[in-house]
Fold this protein.
Amino acid sequence: MYISQQIAADAVNQVLLGRNLTLALPAALTVFPNATPQQRGAAQDLSYGTLRFYGEIDAYLVQLLEKPLTDNRIHSILLVAIYQLLHDKADAFTVVNQAVQAVGELKRPVPKSWAKGLVNAILRNFLRQKDQLNAKLNQSEVAIYSYPQWWINKLKVQYPNHWQSMLEIGNQHPPMTLRVNTQKISIDEYMQLLRRQDIEAVELGEQAIVLTKPVAVEKIPGFTAGIVSVQDYGAQMAAPLLAMQNNKRVLDACCAPGGKTGHILELAEVTLTALDNDENRLLRVQSNLDRLGLQAQLLVGDASSNSWWDGVCFDGILADVPCTASGIVRRHVDIKWLRREADVASFVVQQAKILPNLWRMLAKGGRLLYVTCSVFNEENQGQVDHFLQNNADATQLPYPLQAQSNISQLNGQLIPSIAHDGFFYALLQKN
């Protein structure tokens, strides 16, 4: 099992050096091509768990070290092991032994006997001194909540009544939520299908079902046949909010990976253009549409430019703009440690280019749904307010009551909850 520790430690180390976990973990796995499916799955769990609680784990480790380690690999192995000792059900003796084995497999220039002795001593000191070490953690909000301090401070100011629950939700495992294509099967019929296969689930909305326990995508009944998709309940609000009718011309800007694209087409027979600036990501959109049996025109293009536009206005535009992704941290645990406070302003500048550019492509009387998966006001209502001040032909429509079932929201800002992630929606109409 120490192989799982090694893989996880490598992935964690890469993230702390600035690499996205979706790239770091596959890269770490390639180093161990003979790892069993069980070891690979354990490595994924360990890497996600370690990064989820990195603030807490690192606070323990800092107290245990006389001086910072110069070898990042040893540091990451210790982080993974302390995560296991704090949050995993593994036997403590086994965790320590595996960590010693893992560090013993490191290639030079690390002296193996020194490294093994160091790891063994640090982890055993942790087990002996855990209570005393824990008492000192209460002095640090980074250690308590496992978020950067700037992030905590921002939520305190912007969400004085919700910031603690938002941080806590972000450290939980996300639910596995399905979107049922009710054009092909009813919710009741699909629930019966799940029951026949002994899969426990709960209805959440008109098209949403939450699985009690996650299931491998290929084992989800009806997934390959296109009658159901995996999509967070918060993300499922987009297509109903845009509320397009048949025969309308619709643009889905920044569309990849295509979950909202498919949902729009499931709800209405529209002529849809799906735009993204990454050709490889559009391949995933096409794959999703093929699975669902749906069609759209896929274009490679920059949403802040009009070089790809044919000059014909759209009746509806979904502007799912690039953002900090601060509302989906329980699914992307690395975001907390990769983002910097300055990144917020950078995304705001990018969004401020996209929104007015797409607005010019919207027909009079048409609707544009501005969407982010962020909880930071600068990217959300703050961005929309700035846009409204500079565009007299734009009106922000109220967040409709019928879309609020099981949704925790404040004026279009979805507050992260057990049921959904933290999306923001602003529906704008062209006068």
Notes: DSSP finds 17 helices and 13 strands in the chain. The radius of gyration is 24 Å.
